[in-house]
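Exercise 7. Predict the joint structure of the components listed below.
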Amino acid sequence: MSDAKPTTEPHGKLTIRALAMPADTNPSGDIFGGWVMSQLDIAGAIAAAEIVRGRVATVAVEAMTFIAPVKVGDVLCVYCDLKKIGNTSIAISVEAWSRRNRFFDRVKVTQATFVYVSLGEDGKKRRIDKTAPILST
Ligand SMILES: CC(C)(COP(=O)(O)OP(=O)(O)OC[C@H]1O[C@@H](n2cnc3c(N)ncnc32)[C@H](O)[C@@H]1OP(=O)(O)O)[C@@H](O)C(=O)NCCC(=O)NCCS
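Solution:
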């Protein structure tokens, strides 16, 4: 048995919040994982675009873990943190936490690393200027 204590605080900056609606459920009545994943991708893309100051495209999703189900009525809060900047790519750590039971409870539901590629206006990959100050993560 592990002595590790469960994480009780989100890691990173709150980037988006979204209300889990009945239309987003799977046949079991919980929220469909694809909806959760898309919320993480949206948040990660916002964080990445802020850092590279331009367009980004998702190139990979690494180590996605669904820890607990999301329920109808939860407010999904997605937190992002810069993990790594490469030449044209940027990796963002993304965590989703559900606020539920009228906001009394906060449960970590999903975590992943999303990798984005910086794109120029022509849609081709673009080298990231690492000397520019980071606006936010
Ligand atoms: C993003 C895209 C323009 C990259 O073009 P490419 O010429 O294949 O790019 P490269 O192979 O040179 O990789 C570019 C960067 O991404 C990284 N990368 C590529 N594939 C990766 C993967 N599977 N995992 C992690 N990083 C990856 C490379 O390491 C490189 O990083 P670096 O420049 O920081 O060293 C192209 O792959 C593309 O258009 N993909 C589709 C994007 C898309 O539609 N996303 C939405 C999907 S829902």
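Discussion. Residues 33-52 form the longest helix (20 residues).
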